[in-house]
Design brief:
mainly alpha; two-stranded antiparallel sheet; 7 helices; 2 strands
């Protein structure tokens, strides 16, 4: 998890610096005019626009890193089970059966990790409904679930969620 923590801290720091620069710039110009920060001859972005874009992109990058690590952690577990087992297991249920047969019952919360990783990959109602039921805390408080919802967009993953996923995967076999 050191690689996640290092990467995440770096992105969080960049996002905080970008937010600070944008905020300072906003205070500095007040109600006055803003300088042109960039143009390609068609679009004109002010310095405020550029600073805000840098801030939004940095926060988005940190969010995507959290999602990528959750998927990677679950896929690591899947691959290990495949290698430890009969090398034929292909579904989550098969993997769980293999682990139990090897004497390593998976952590009871592994299903929520499976569903979250699948939701992150597929953004489907099938997985979204299950994550909503099993682990509602990973969603933004403003998210409204329902058919054809943007489940992925409704997630509000934190580094604590990533660490919890790592702990669950770690308790789900001899990884």
């Amino acid at each position: 998890m050191r690689s996640f923590n290092t990467s995440h801290e770096t992105l969080q720091g960049a996002a905080e610096e970008a937010e600070d620069a944008w905020s300072k710039h906003e205070r500095a110009i007040g109600d006055g005019p803003d300088a042109v920060g960039w143009t390609d001859g068609y679009a004109i972005l002010t310095t405020t626009d550029l600073l805000k874009l840098r801030m939004v992109n940095a926060w988005a990058a940190a969010s995507e890193l959290r999602a990528a690590f959750i998927i990677a952690l679950y896929h690591h577990w899947e691959r290990c089970v495949y290698l430890w087992g009969d090398r034929r297991s292909s579904s989550h249920a098969d993997h769980v059966r293999v682990m139990k047969g090897l004497g390593y019952p998976p952590d009871p919360d592994l299903e929520k990790v499976y569903r979250l990783a699948s939701l992150l990959k597929h953004n489907s109602d099938r997985h979204g409904d299950r994550v909503w039921t099993l682990w509602r805390e990973v969603f933004s408080p403003t998210f409204t679930c329902g058919p054809n919802a943007d489940w992925y967009g409704g997630l509000d993953l934190t580094d604590d969620h990533v660490n919890e996923v790592a702990d669950i995967v770690g308790r789900s076999g001899p990884t």
